[in-house]
Write a structure and sequence with these properties.
It is a single chain. This protein is an all-beta fold and about 55 residues long. The chain is built from no helices and 3 strands. Strands 1-2-3 form a 3-stranded antiparallel beta sheet, with no helix packed on it. Strand 1 and strand 2 form a beta hairpin. The model has no long low-confidence stretch (mean pLDDT about 90).
């Protein structure tokens, strides 16, 4: 994700929905729900296999 200061941050998220230009997803590492502007998403990649277990 592109941050306002121009840097990027990586998140491993479980998507829940996309609406009104925003992605709502669960961040399992931080155990919180994040809502991100779709325009700030810099890249998308599949999750590593070891990250899929609960």
């Amino acid at each position: 994700m592109r941050m306002p200061n121009g840097e990027t941050a990586d998140y491993l998220l479980a998507p829940a929905s996309v609406a009104n230009g925003r992605l709502r997803a669960r961040d399992r590492k931080s155990d919180i729900e994040r809502t991100l502007p779709v325009s700030a998403i810099a890249a998308v990649a599949p999750a590593p296999a070891d990250a899929l277990g609960d």
